[in-house]
Design brief:
The chain contains five helices and eight strands. It is α+β, with helices and mostly antiparallel strands. β5 and β6 form a beta hairpin. The protein is globular and about 35 Å long. The protein starts with a helix and ends in a 9-residue tail after the last strand.
């Protein structure tokens, strides 16, 4: 009977790990939490990108909620989903799906509103943030830490950074 229980737990455990994303990232080394952007979103000339970045910055301090995608609480990909939907752009739900669907952007060409993708685990991309400009991004780190600002110059984030991505205004519109 115990062997049967393990068989049923295997797929469930894999599902939790796959959906865990942001909640499973290791915590970065202690540093002062930043709940307000150190700078305002950098002007990029792209009004929609600036709107996305400003919406993300306006959510600083919102609680982390696994699976959350509204002002009641966010996980990392739910935050990206929410700010893009607010700008009228539909994007996939998970960080990995978002990274696969986005147009890759070289880090030197990141603009406000772009997404930055990280791999903290061994399974590839599992965390996403919304780029503000000046090396800063807004993200929902993990349980117990509110939506906050991260810095790409921070060694911890720089080590896990995979790439940047962009969804154009011509992406599917949110109904």
């Amino acid at each position: 009977m115990a062997a049967r229980a393990r068989v049923h737990l295997g797929p469930a455990l894999l599902a939790v790990i796959a959906l865990g994303g942001c909640s499973l990232i290791r915590r970065p080394p202690p540093q002062a939490p930043v709940t307000a952007p150190l700078t305002t979103p950098a002007p990029s000339g792209d009004a929609r990108g600036e709107e996305i970045a400003a919406t993300a910055a306006g959510l600083l301090g919102a609680p982390y909620e696994f699976g959350g995608a509204d002002a009641g609480g966010f996980d990392c990909s739910g935050l990206a989903l929410y700010v893009y939907a607010h700008a009228g752009i539909a994007i996939p739900r998970t960080a990995r799906e978002q990274q696969r669907a986005a147009q890759a952007v070289p880090l030197s060409k990141l603009a406000p509103g772009d997404l930055v993708f990280f791999a903290f685990g061994r399974g590839g991309v599992d965390h996403v943030g919304v780029y503000l400009g000046h090396g800063q991004f807004v993200h929902a780190p993990h349980r117990g830490v509110a939506v906050s600002v991260g810095d790409l110059a921070n060694e911890y984030f720089a080590h896990h950074l995979v790439n940047g991505g962009r969804f154009s205004a011509s992406a599917a519109s949110v109904p």
